Amino acid sequence: MRRHGWTSGLTVKAIRYYEDIGLVPKPARTSGGVHTRGHRVYSEADIGRLSFIHQARLLGLSLADIRELLAVADGKGCPSEQPEYRDILTRHLREIDERVRHLLGLRNVIEGLLPRARPTNGQKCSWGTCACMRWQAGTLPPSGAGSSGDDEHKGGSNV
Hints:
Blueprint: H1 2-8, H2 12-20, E1 28-29, E2 40-41, H3 44-58, H4 63-76, H5 83-113
Antiparallel strand pairs: 1-2
């Protein structure tokens, strides 16, 4: 199995996970000893399917999108020849563009925080007076799918 993981670019743990969730069929096994179930035996098609999954994950596609593309391939042949392929990739590009816009907004806010002198009005900085992470409301774009993952602070509020 380790050799197949290397061939597909996936770890053994990932391959087993994809088997468990049904993205890859359970492979045949060699005859094992009394205490083993034998080694997994993958066909060339299985390895190709695992490589497809790995490449799709590297591109950031969700497991749901990958499952849909695999179903298309299983039913109609090569995914790239099907309209669903184009629809999924086009949608994914829009999601990437949204995340990029959000990240650029974050970058601009952080750049604005760097040079800013913080007037203390004679007060020692404390949690009650600290302005190190305050920015003008509305300067961040709405957070997109897959941004920081911190749902409490999405949208750029000064909470």
